[in-house]
Task: structure prediction
Amino acid sequence: MNNNSPRRARSSPLPAAHRSGANLIGCQARLPNTRLLPIVLLALLVCLPSTPTRSAEVSTSARSPNIVLFIADDLGYGELGCQGNAQIPTPFIDQLAASGVRCTQFYVTAPNCSPSRAGLLTGRFPTRFGYEFNPIGAINEEPGVGLPGEETTMAEYLQGAGYTTALIGKWHLGGTAPFHPQRQGFDLFYGFLHEGHYYCPPPYAGVTTMLRRRVLPDGKRGRYFITRDLLYSDHMGHDEPDYDADNPVLRSSQPVDEKDYLTDAIARESVAFIERYRSVPFFLCVSFNAVHSPLQGKQETMARLEHIEDLHRRIFAAMLVDLDAAVGRIVQCIEDQGLRRDTLFIFLSDNGGPTAELTSSNQPLRGGKGSMYEGGIRVPCIFNWHEQLPAGTVCTDVVGAVDILPTLARRVGGPPPRSSDGIDIWPALLGQGLSSQRPPLYWRQGMRAALRVGDWKIVLHRRRQRNAGPAEVPAEHWELFHLANDAAEQTDLADEHPQQLQQLLGVWRALDAEMQEPIF
Ligand SMILES: [Ca+2]
Result:
């Protein structure tokens, strides 16, 4: 994941306009999307011909639902049973899909963890408030690194609607005091602040642990077994990041000595929260670190996966199976408490899978974590609410993480979020199509960029000029794809449809001019 995090790179693909006095966190930016109108209109032109939007009769629940938001970490598009994977059993997540709505074109706001979560929790493109890059390791503890307090998070919004809120698991939106999750709208917090965490601390009892190393002992290559269940691997050519350095598991701010496998601990804490707060509306964000590295699989789970010959893949599979079991345990708790009719489940991944690192598949999409191709930003996503959403359906509309806050706002009867790049997608989840025009989806992270409007997408592909000296600017090339015909982004249509490319580029540039420079 390190190689996906050009945290120090501050150049954007095209220079963002310097906005004199344009404080995007200020009240001007908080107005509903009137400033987006020209862009939306332009986007309307670009995406023609488009499917006519259908009017939607939105059903409403008698009461505000509990909201359980499952975030999987680095789970690729192609790894769940319901996404077509026959190798790794994920019956509980599959059951959520079978009794809910599975979205096949759901996008996160960035191809890696931290900015993706910033976009999800605020309903905004994270570059609007300078949250462009992915801080890792000790950078999480630098001053100023974190989700700006001026932003309104989903948790703060729901608190304002009378909800009790909890984050259980990974935060990764700032590791210092001003950015603590309890200062961002979460009443309760159990978890850790950095980008990753060991699932089981040394001496790694009961798990098989495979750690990345740049150099193996004795000049060996490949895998080096220290014990039967602890090995080094040089498959990535770098050392395992220092995940647990100054990154304790915390209850609020108090370090705890967690003994359970971390995925199980996250399920245990989630169940305890549901049991305690069953009588009030709650927002529970279950933020798994699975299936993010380090690779640590419970041996009892791995024993059930012996059909997977490769050890690397089997450890990954065990991590996913235990993530699935944790989802099952939490859903069962909701059932046992008699809350199923009052609970909306959302399941998604924060970004695509890093295939070389984890074996995680993004099939049939191109690219993976860190990439602006579909495999980096299009992720599995399920919505499930008993009797309120149709069971066993597939939503093929273009939807995304920015839509979740506006969608929840409508469900809980609160005012619209003050500013969002998303829309209420409930009609689409009901199978009635989007009731309003989908605003463009925009991405920028250093030299990477993309935009989706209707069936079209542009992706910035930068490459150094042949024989270019160090001072020369890399060549810039925007690729154009028609995703309805080419979801795998195999055919660049930039030369064939130059006008289409220019129109999308115009939308991208107009949006880009609204973004802030990186704040870290
Ligand atoms: Ca991630």
Remarks:
- Residues 73-74, 112-113, 292, 350-351 surround calcium ion (CB under 6 Å).
- The CA atoms of residues 34 and 402 lie 17 Å apart.
